[in-house]
């Protein structure tokens, strides 16, 4: 029995590149083998419960535009209806995973105990649906940024009672993620930052945040959770400055607090853009340090200065992202979560399916282009050529030398370096051949 919400929308199937059906895949064929692995196993798609089902269509300047049968989201009956609809959509799309915050899937209770009880009720409700559809949990997390209690942070809050409430919240969400067989657990510090340094002890807040994350890792091992612990960088919005600014900042934080072997990164394209980076850059930074965990695939409007969370539509950008992911060995236990939402004017159930179908196709095209570039080897060849001089015994010996000895050699040999072309335009043209 269905809810009727998606009755007018047929299941999405692969029809090939010549299809003109907006509800069919043109490029995403889950069983197609790419670099020795099924496309579905490379991409590991997930639907974000919050944007797809909990978000009501508001933006910074206007309120609700979506009128869904499960609105208002204030009792368990409607929470279960929302779950019914969600799993219908997962099945229609054929996605293997979904992701959630606690506040997405259960209404807030009058007390913490009531909220936790509701979380346990709804995750129990998920169990049979997951078994019936075969859809798993890519990751769970806690919303510690929306409610007013979090206005000054969660683990970084100056009030120790808020720290305690955050600890209890994360414990409950980790327990629920374990129960659902989650592959990862994510922490995003939306309010872990400051509005002004006039009232902020940055050193104390960072130490508390580091201790909190160590507690998370300790609890992971205590309960036998085999998934990855991930943190998600973002530079600003809602806070003026967030401590998890970008991939490099998070990696430095993890090393400072002894967590570099326990925690990896969940990277989002929209957050990369807000930090002044490309998504390709953030993936490369994490991969270089062995800290690439999972990705949230979306995009921002380049004419807007805030996080618009639009579905991806740029194949060249996506291809370079998957190029670095494939070169790093793939996503492992991570996946491609669509942390993306409809436009406020896209009101229909059909829009929700079409947005995901298009995004999955964009990722599939990007993945195939990335695999083709790796097979061709052109970028590897260009890199090897550019850095070939470092392979000589003389160059390697210099790295173990000292400034004075190197200076003597430069003078004795009369070294006068001659610049070489970086060939950027040629390489950009090369990438365009594949996308």
The appropriate CATH architecture of the largest domain is Alpha-Beta Barrel
CATH class of the largest domain: Alpha Beta
What sort of overall outline do the alpha carbons produce when their principal axes are compared? globular
Radius of gyration: 24 Å
What is the quaternary state of this protein?
A: single chain
Number of strands: 12
Gap between N and C termini, in Å?
Answer: 42 Å
The order of strands across the largest sheet is 3-4-5-6-8-10-11-12
Binding site for Mg(2+) 2: 268, 271, 307, 309
Enzyme class: isomerase
Catalytic activity: alpha-D-xylose = alpha-D-xylulofuranose
Binding site for Mg(2+) 1: 232, 268, 296, 339
